[in-house]
Design a protein that fits this description.
Blueprint lengths: L10 E6 L3 E6 L8 H6 L2 E4 L15 E3 L13 H8 L8 H13 L22 E5 L13 H25 L3 E5 L3 H6 L13 H8 L4 E4 L9 H8 L3 E5 L16 E3 L2 H13 L1 H19 L1 H13 L2
Length: 311
């Protein structure tokens, strides 16, 4: 593709029927990749913001949808490569590589289509889950702009206030806090998860299955966090910070999630779902329908191929 490296644009090129070039842009930022845009017949954007798309490209750029970590399930050489290298290894290559190989050899939990979705469960008691990460404004080796540092502090403070309010209101019916990173332990010691191991994927998914109400907050670059897709796939009743980007289909405030702009509103909307089993289950059913229609991998890809073939 005109000399572009396979991972240089944080996305994936696909050639459809030897005629159409598709680009899947999975970056958090709503900014479009000009190099890919120039050669693509269809461009699918994870953080899709219609107002930021130049008029001349609007017919070619489409929302990709919610995203989360998922694998086909078979440990062929491509799955192994993706699993091992899914995180940046440049900072500590030998140690990190050994950890990844050890995970594979011990048959560590691999998020697959089979084990990363579930229909709603109606008879669960109301409980609230919100596990989050505190972002280090120093960048942890990545150079950040002043605006990016402010963004990280604001994300952290919103999450901290939500955790604090939900803990006070729901007590033992709430489980949540910051993952026990060095930055979080130094700055939010009173709001940490009780167990460092619970943040691991296998333990987190096991826990997620038990909680019908889940909280989502805005990610870096104003993106929709990966947890939102996991909540939908597991048919949860969701309380989410206001979405800044768009996804395909009818994914709406009041139906698929209750929206909040402040931590106080987060508590208010969570209480509505906590107190009404009928309201909870209706939202859970709505999200299961959305998953089967738009988020399930086969549906997501088939929709993009259909759009691309008509481009």
């Amino acid at each position: 593709m005109n000399g572009l490296g396979p991972h240089g644009l944080n996305g994936l090129f696909v050639v459809l029927n030897d005629s159409k070039i598709i680009f899947y842009d999975t970056s958090d930022s709503p900014t479009l990749q000009n190099e890919a845009l120039e050669i693509s017949d269809a461009y699918f954007k994870r953080s899709y913001v219609n107002d930021l798309i130049p008029v001349q490209y609007k017919s070619r750029v489409h929302p990709l949808g919610l995203n989360y970590e998922l694998y086909a399930g078979s440990l062929n050489r491509y799955e192994v490569a993706r699993f091992v290298f899914r995180k940046h290894l440049l900072h500590d290559f030998p140690k990190e590589l050994c950890v990844r190989i050890a995970e594979l050899l011990s048959l560590s939990f691999l998020p697959t289509v089979v084990n990363m979705a579930s229909p709603p469960i109606n008879n669960q008691d109301p409980q609230v889950l919100f596990m989050a990460r505190a972002w280090d404004p120093s960048g942890e080796g990545i150079e950040l702009s002043a605006e990016q540092k402010v963004e990280r502090r604001e994300i952290n403070e919103t999450r901290a206030r939500c955790i604090n309010l939900l803990r006070k209101e729901f007590g033992s019916r709430f489980y949540g806090g910051f993952a026990r990173t060095a930055y979080a332990m130094d700055n939010y010691g009173h709001l940490l998860l009780g167990d460092a191991l619970v943040s691991g994927k296998k333990n987190y998914i096991a826990l997620l299955r038990q909680y019908p109400i889940c909280i989502a907050t805005t990610g870096l670059h104003g993106s929709i966090g990966w947890k939102m897709a996991e909540y939908v796939a597991f048919s949860k009743a969701i309380v989410s910070e206001k979405l800044r980007s768009e996804v395909p289909g009818n994914f709406d405030n009041g139906a698929n999630y209750f929206e909040f702009c402040t931590p106080e509103e987060c508590l208010q909307e969570t209480t509505k779902l906590f107190e009404s089993r009928e309201l909870r289950f209706k939202m859970m059913q709505t999200n299961w329908v959305y998953y089967k229609s738009y988020l399930a991998p086969d549906q997501l890809i088939m929709r993009t191929l259909s759009i691309a073939s008509q481009s």
